[in-house]
Amino acid sequence: MFDRFDRGRYATDASLYQMMPLGVLSPKSEDDIHAALEIARAQGVSILPRGGGTSQCGQTVNEALVLDNTQYFNDILELDVEGQRCVVRPGIVLDDLNRALKPHGLWFPVDVSTASRATIGGMAGNNSCGGKSLRYGMMRDNVLSIDGFLADGSKQHFGPVETPPPPGLMADMLSLGAREAAEIDARFPKVMRRVGGYNIDALVPAARPNNLAHLLVGSEGTLAYSTAIELKLWPLIPHKVLGICHFPTFHHAMDATQHLVTLAPQGVELVDSTMIALARDIPLFRATIEEVVTGTPEALLLVEFAETDPSLHRGKLRDLDAMMGDLGFSWRGSGDNWGGVTQVTDPKMQARIADLRSSGLNIMMSMKVDGKPVSFVEDCAVELPDLAAYTAGLTEIFERYGTKGTWYAHASVGCLHVRPVLNMKLDKDVKTMRAIAEECFDLVARYKGSHSGEHGDGIVRSEFHEKMFGPRMVANFAEVKERFDPEGLFNPGKIVNAPKMDDRRLFRYGPDYTVPDFKTELDWSDWTGGGAGFQGAVEMCNNNGACRKLKGGVMCPSFRVTRKEQDLTRGRANTLRLAISGQLGPNALSSDQMAETMKLCVSCKGCKRECPTGVDMARMKIEVQSARSKKHGISLHDRLVGFLPRYAPMVSRLPFLANLRNRVPGLARLSEKLTGFTATRDLPIWSGDPFRDTEVTPQDTPKTVLFADCFNRYFEPENLRATLKVLAAAKVPVEIAAAPTGARPLCCGRTFLSAGLVEEAKVEAQRLVDALLPYARAGVPIIGLEPSCLLTLRDEIPALIPGEGTALLAQHARMLEEYIADQADNPDFTLPLTSPAHKVMVHGHCHQKAMGVMSGIEKALSLLPDTEVEVIETSCCGMAGAFGYGNDTHEISRRMAEADLIPALNVASEDTVIVADGTSCRHQIADLSTRKPIHIARLLEQALK
């Protein structure tokens, strides 16, 4: 990949830097890598191996040929269960590896917070640590050997060294270790969390047996190109307990840590009050915070115990409670004596807390202002007795420069993540960053700590090695680099020969970075910058890569299929940022390359909920499609999809003609090129008896109003009729939201938005708002059946037509199951239900998941007696409106469904009922499986006594 759009997507990582690569290669084999090395060496081009691209310090950006190992070079080569070891390719993701190991009772315990996207190669290159390093050690402690290419193209095995070693590279390195043993002992920090510089302490005689693989660990891709990594595995301990210790001040928490670790937990993690407050504002984490946080603590310490004998856990929690009391903290106390322990034994809640903690970096980045917590002194490490004094000293430095830090992470090993809030677009704040870094590293040196305790060196810290290690040690690092890579082929400028950390020419927001103002269609006023805030919304992406996860949640379904950076929320956001700032050439927003970037975005909105910084790519895609439609017009395919609400009333009068395409052999194939609808699938069947508003008698005092969307009205009217029966059985007077007499039925405008026809969408939205607003002002709930339509009232319509009216409508818009769940405490609401089936499996529509309404469907189905309900854990079904019918997207659509959804349905018993509220979801399931799913309204109708 060598065009400007592809290169731009690899120009950044999770640091503050941006360096445009020369090109990108996704190797499939060692032969590909060897060929790339040969060509690069001949052309004088450097090589940058890359995994998940989540480095905090700029390790994975360079003006080089990037080799992305994640797409193909990611398998397990060997698994020795009895010997508790495995050999893997560098591109395998940690969570994928642990999923494969779990059936064997094993795991790889370097559990970094980015486990859903961090690759083993990247973790080895960075000497990653994770929250359980107190028990399991760091990456260096768990890598047994590494195979890889040297800069000259030769293969080399790095592992335990024979004594004496044969002449050559190994012998030279051991000679250096013997020569510098005294200097290494004097200058290397003794703290556990030391990941700065090269691990030449692995070469000294005292470290025997010397393991050369440990020299590569933490080398940030500067010494060799790893092709196979042998790992030490550990027995999986399935049960654990968590004690959440509350403290009245941050200082008290820091001081208590040295005492709490004596209880032998496997980890002690910090969460400060800033992170608590920010997490409360993020829908994904709000409920978790409310459930486990008592009062208003200034800091929490999450103390985790995991024993092979789970009967010991209760005693561990008692000891923790007693120690907190001994330290002077009590729930009954006040002031400096207030505090206590919340015990968490439920595995599901523990997982939710783990998700919150692992998202700490990104929760901190969720601020919607230009100033953001910046990573540059983020993970310095000191001994535990010095932790409270060190954090107090660092806070004083921040205050002296008019900023404050956000704190969290690995208290148990003296390594706290702290980010002062700065605006990296301002030269004065860049100067402040430099000054803080200088003083901070002086403070760390005073405590004999490490200036790099987890996230490595990269561009941020490499230039400070002389301050930390002294000139002789820096010369030793340079000698190692010269011996391994004399021509500087591998990732130059990291660890040795580094640029200045504040060189703005290397910044994502460089000295010439500007975004000219431009017109946007939606309301982006919650953010700052050009496009009335669109710029700020795009820049919320800090490249954390949470969208790269391959299991769990929804986002990003297209990436899960293709594993391409362009088919990823992060890749799309980076492309948008580069486009609006002029870095991709003129008219980039409406270009063919941008259309290709957005092509596989199914607008699932998974990122809206699951991206820790709230990047809403579905909404951003509307802006892109609008810009493109204005410049290039729209295709017949998009016209047929977009204008459905306009022509549906006429077509519904002659449904047999509309359905001929599915019934006449060859007609689908003949129309395929013209319409853009694939001939491999039947289109939805137009109903011969569409729903009519006159089927419902107007009420004097309706308790609810039903919004009949186009899809249920014209294709599956039985769902609307079932809803009326259910509400009638509950004695709830209902009225239909109707257009003025003689006008066509109401529509939410979603189909127009999917085609980029924003003005037409506004017309439809305004008609709907006008019809529904009187009900909302009267406090009447607005019920809908189709998630993508009803939830438009909560999301897109307030962005299309901002104001008090649409905000009020958003509050009153409810899915049918939400409305039923809302009546749990209403004595006047009763549904006489029997069991319709012994088991019901539910597939949630993406928008239901993104808007956090899945709990409503679970509560509503819990009313069914003697019925087991299972919510299928799956991402997008893949149909996504018309996406699954597209000529050039239907195959991707199938692969999305076949990842998790279809396999789950295939193992379900024949008498299990499948519920799916989304019209597109029901069609996808019916097309790709033997099951016939129904809407929850139909299920409740069947269950009525």
Could you describe the largest sheet, including whether it forms a barrel?
A: 7 strands, antiparallel
The portion of residues forming beta strands comes to 5-15%
Average pLDDT taken over every residue: 94
Task: Flag low-confidence runs.
Answer: none
**Number of helix segments?**
45
Radius of gyration over alpha carbons? 29 Å
Work out the number of β strands: 24
Strand order of the largest sheet: 14-11-13-12-16-17-15
Helix proportion of residues, in percent?
A: 40-55%
Helix/strand structural class: alpha/beta
Shape: globular
Gap from first CA to last CA: 62 Å
Quick structural overview:
With 945 residues, the protein is α/β, with parallel strands linked by helices. The protein is built from 45 helices and 24 strands.
Q: What are the key terms here?
A:
40% helix; 7-stranded antiparallel sheet; 45 helices; 5-stranded antiparallel sheet; 945 residues; alpha/beta
Please provide a written account of the structure.
- This protein is 40% helix and 12% strand.
- Helix 16 (387-400) packs antiparallel against helix 17 and helix 35 crosses helix 38.
- The longest helix is centred in the middle third of the chain and has 20 residues, at 427-446.
- The chain is globular.
